[in-house]
Q: What sequence folds into this?
């Protein structure tokens, strides 16, 4: 598998990703697509919301299905939901959670590396580090795009399933 590096301000990655960009969620829906990339016009707010700490029965049922050839692993539920309130290029406002393993893994690694003494303090450390990444770094230093998608049975309910965040290229650095 070829690695697509981030040299030259992510130019090679941009050539692959940005042609898939839509103007807005409405544009994706009008083209009867369930997946797309959008550039928010304005990001109003990053949010973090506490959720349940246990899988619901339907989720647990899927997890509990034994695989004939693989050992069962314990899948940790992250008790927080991360996301953004934003306005797309058509002026429509949205509040979408991020359903991306990379963000959940960021939280998990930050929590596990925390030097705090209690589990709750470790969680607070991790939440602050995730906030720093998603609110401060991504909204300040990155040209942030959302990879959004919906489910077949919920065509009007989109979520952020990935983030594309090349560095902001200033006009001065082009000369």
A:
């Amino acid at each position: 598998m070829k690695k697509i590096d981030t040299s030259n301000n992510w130019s090679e990655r941009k050539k692959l990703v940005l042609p898939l960009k839509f103007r807005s969620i409405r544009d994706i829906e009008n083209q009867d697509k369930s997946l797309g990339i959008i550039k928010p016009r304005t990001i109003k707010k990053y949010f973090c919301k506490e959720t349940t700490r246990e899988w619901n029965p339907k989720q647990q049922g899927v997890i509990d299905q034994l695989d004939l050839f693989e050992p069962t692993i314990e899948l940790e539920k992250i008790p927080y939901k991360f996301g953004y309130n934003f306005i797309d290029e058509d002026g429509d406002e949205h509040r979408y959670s991020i359903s991306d393993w990379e963000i959940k893994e960021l939280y998990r690694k930050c929590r596990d590396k925390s030097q705090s003494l209690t589990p709750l303090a470790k969680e607070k450390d991790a939440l602050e580090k995730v906030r720093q990444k998603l609110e401060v770094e991504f909204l300040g230093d990155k040209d942030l795009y959302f990879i959004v998608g919906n489910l077949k049975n919920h065509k009007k309910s989109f979520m952020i399933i990935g983030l594309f965040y090349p560095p902001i290229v200033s006009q001065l650095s082009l000369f």
DSSP finds five helices and seven strands in the chain.
